[in-house]
Design goal:
The chain is α+β, with helices and mostly antiparallel strands. Helices cover about 20% and strands about 45% of the residues. It has two domains: about 1-35; about 55-195, Lipopolysaccharide (LPS) transport protein A like domain (lipopolysaccharide transport protein A fold), CATH 2.60.450.
Length: about 200
């Protein structure tokens, strides 16, 4: 019927106007909900120097361990390690702790703020408030300690001070190594050794 066709035509014509307007209204609502995003605003970036990270290879919680030719065990742990920029065969370490377990049963605990491991000769150098504690009763501090992994060797090239089993001790140098004659561990103090004897207290 003509009136039905006319009604259908008018309905279609109105929908062509209403639907695009409705679509525009929905889009405008989405932009309002987006909280005023500024397309010119730069994206936030994490505060990390990626270039520095890429150039500074390293590891956290690294462990170095070895057994000397005499059977002494050496273990060293670090908070952070990375290859040296000057020599890749050197490993720089931070917050170092180490333990030497001698075949005699004596344990020596070491700690320092910094360290350096030389992979060429399996040695280590500890620096910065080096602390030496032994199960035999020594508690010592020094600025620098050189130690080896392949053979028992530990040396303070500078002064060392602290407490010995017999009293307060200061010396210009300390060396720990195996004695050639007996093969047992030997701790030697030299260069102006001073020991202030402290008698044991009653009951000790």
């Amino acid at each position: 019927m003509p009136w039905r066709e006319n009604l259908h035509s008018r309905f279609v014509a109105r929908m062509k106007i209403v639907l695009p307007l409705a679509a525009l209204g929905i889009l405008s609502t989405l932009f309002l909900i987006s909280n005023g995003f500024d397309p010119n605003q730069t994206l936030p970036v994490a505060g990390i120097d990626l270039q520095e990270r890429a150039q500074s290879l390293g590891a956290t919680g690294a462990t170095f361990a070895g057994v000397s030719s005499e059977g002494h065990e050496v273990t060293m742990r670090t908070e952070r390690t990375r290859p040296s920029a000057a020599d890749p065969r050197l490993i720089e370490a931070r917050d170092v702790t180490a333990r030497m377990t001698l075949n005699s049963g004596v344990e020596i605990d070491l700690s320092s703020h910094r360290g350096e491991v030389d992979q060429r000769d399996n040695s280590a150098t500890l620096t910065g408030d080096v602390r030496i504690t032994t199960s035999s009763g020594y508690v010592l501090t020094t600025d620098r300690l050189n130690a080896g992994f392949d053979t028992l060797y530990a040396e303070t090239p500078g002064p060392v001070e602290g407490r010995a089993p017999a009293g307060d001790l200061t010396a210009g140098r300390m060396v720990l190594r195996d004695r050639p004659d007996t093969g047992g561990p030997h701790l030697v103090f030299s260069n102006g050794v001073k020991l202030i004897y402290q008698p044991p207290k009653p009951g000790e």
